[in-house]
Design brief:
The complex is a heterodimer of chains A (262) and B (253). By secondary structure, chain A is of the alpha+beta class. Chain A has helices spanning 2-26, 226-258, and strands spanning 39-42, 45-49, 66-69, 72-76, 86-88, 95-98, 102-106, 112-115, 121-122, 128-129, 146-151, 156-161, 168-172, 174-177, 185-186, 191-193, 202-205, 213-216, 218-220. In chain B, helix 1 runs antiparallel to helix 2. The chains are: A alpha+beta (262), B alpha+beta (253).
Chain lengths: 262, 253
């Protein structure tokens, strides 16, 4: 009976839906996290009687057909790339992007990764690095004895050295954007990497080309809304249950046939 | 003589198919823009020899046949997503999707941008504007879609809207002739559609599936119970016949 397998595709889809929702909830306090949504499409149909086919010798055509669908498939788990809430932290090296851009990070193997998580620190050589220890591009080194660090909205980093009264400009943190940022591939640690779907990275500086502003002493919160996630979770759970009911109902029908002529 | 058996069987075949339809509806309860299917049945009279001119005409045996499934085209509930690339269609219209097989139609307004900057559906097929695919430039931001389908952006550092195209929305005089082909797409059969000006697009929303879960569950129970009852009836028929054969076939000693 087809209904059994159709309902099974429904159960598999809802299971994945719950996984995506639980990952969103688990990351509701992750800086710069972008929530995902599971998206589904119907599977191909079996056109038992094809609509528009000739129905009689008089040339009438079938105004409606018999289409039996085979269930559902997951088409993707795209990320919602909306701006998360900006919350002030008071920490000099916390930065948030208000706009489209990503911070560019150099990985140990020389490749680049991109992040919206701007909770930076300095490493043992004074470089501005991510929490994972990878330097922000272009690399900026804070000298010993720097008293106050200022990051302008365009990413320019300047410090005041003790004993001096004028600030020294050290460099400018760049931003990168992608034409299809939803096509970036997440690789954990709040990092994304380029894919054929995302398009090539376009490096630039903040405040220009729609890249957005850099806000110092601020972090971007996850764009997860707990109320939405919980209500989605409940719907997913109910949908799973209903598909399970279909499986048992179809089974009951088969059983009644099997028991018919003993 | 096998009438009761065959009539019952014709009903069971139909119920099984109706169950498939219910299962597909429920499986797609989270599918954006999904339209539920409904089953329709018709009576199918035995075409054998009959004479209807007597005062009490011959009773012809009536079977059941599934005639059609039709699309329930009611609007699904709208869910706010805050995603600027999500649009729900308020009205009877469909978006036009360019597939290798030709133009297809969809109510799934969850749009994406591909690496070439084209607006595409979730499967990666371009969603057409009035002048072909709509292309977004790499430096564009703040994409907005107006209720009549105009896609505009802020270009680079400019603060003035630039138009990138206008989404094509079409509606059908006979939407039942559309054929579902999976992937949230409808294929045209006889009705090619006309530009729709009544529908309004709502940015930041998606249209969810219009499957009514309570209705489907009720239908499922109805189908199961009816099917089981017919099985029982068929069993009784079979026992009746068995008894008849045993009794009538008894050779007197």
């Amino acid at each position: 009976m087809r209904a059994l397998y159709t309902a099974a595709t429904g159960m598999a889809a809802q299971e994945l839906n719950v996984q995506v929702i639980s990952n969103n909830i688990a990351n509701m306090r992750t800086t710069g996290f972008k929530k995902q949504t599971a998206q589904f499409q119907d599977l191909i149909y079996d056109h038992v009687r094809r609509v528009g086919a000739q129905a009689s010798d008089q040339g009438t055509i079938l105004p409606v057909g018999v289409d039996i669908g085979g269930g559902v498939k997951t088409v993707g788990t795209p990320r919602l790339m909306t701006q998360g809430t900006l919350s002030p932290t008071g920490n000099d090296l916390d930065m948030a992007v208000r706009g489209e851009g990503f911070f560019k990070i150099q990985m140990p193997d020389g490749t680049f990764a991109y992040t919206r998580d701007g909770s930076f620190t300095t490493d043992n050589t004074g470089r501005i690095v991510t929490a994972g220890g990878n330097p922000v591009q272009p690399t900026i080194t804070i000298p010993n004895g720097a008293t106050s660090i200022t990051v302008a909205t365009n990413g320019q980093v300047s410090v005041t050295i003790s004993g001096s009264t004028t600030p020294t400009v050290l460099g400018q943190i760049g931003l990168t954007r992608f034409i299809n940022k939803a096509g970036l591939q997440p690789q954990g640690d709040n990092l994304f990497v380029e894919t054929p779907a995302s398009g090539t990275p376009q490096d630039g500086i903040a405040t220009a080309d729609g890249l957005g502003d850099i806000m110092q002493k601020t972090l971007e919160q996850a764009n997860v809304e707990v109320v939405t996630e919980i209500s989605d979770l409940i719907s997913a759970q109910r949908a799973y249950e209903m598909n399970a009911k279909v499986v048992s109902a179809a089974d009951q029908m088969l059983q009644s046939t099997a028991n018919m002529f003993r | 003589m096998e009438n009761a058996l065959l009539v019952g069987l014709s009903r069971q075949v139909v119920l099984e198919r109706q169950m498939d339809v219910v299962a597909n509806n429920l499986a797609n309860i989270s599918t954006n823009g999904f339209k539920a299917e409904r089953s329709m049945f018709q009576e199918f009279l035995n075409t054998g020899a009959h004479e209807d001119n007597f005062p009490r005409p011959d009773r012809r045996v009536s079977f059941v046949q599934d005639r059609a499934t039709y699309h329930d085209l009611s609007t699904g509930s709208l869910q706010q997503t805050k995603n600027p690339l999500d649009i729900a269609i308020d009205g009877p219209g469909f978006l036009v999707v360019q597939t290798p097989q030709g133009e297809r139609f969809t109510r799934d307004g969850s749009l994406k941008i591909n690496a070439q900057g084209q607006l595409v559906n979730s499967s990666g097929f371009p969603v057409l504007g009035t002048g072909g695919p709509i292309v977004i430039q790499p430096t564009d931001k703040e994409l907005s879609i107006s209720p009549d389908g105009r896609v505009s952006v802020l270009e680079g550092t400019s603060i003035i809207d630039s138009l990138r195209g206008k989404l094509r929305v079409v509606s059908f005089d006979r939407p039942q002739t559309l054929m579902k082909q999976g992937g949230n797409l409808f294929a045209p059969t006889s009705d090619q559609g006309t530009p729709d000006i009544k529908s309004m697009l709502r940015q930041g929303y998606v249209e969810k599936s219009n499957v009514n879960s309570v209705l489907e569950m009720t239908r499922m129970i109805d189908v199961t119970r009816t099917y089981t009852q017919i099985s029982a009836m068929l069993q009784q028929q079979s026992e009746l016949r068995k008894a008849a054969i045993e009794k009538l076939g008894e050779v007197p000693a």
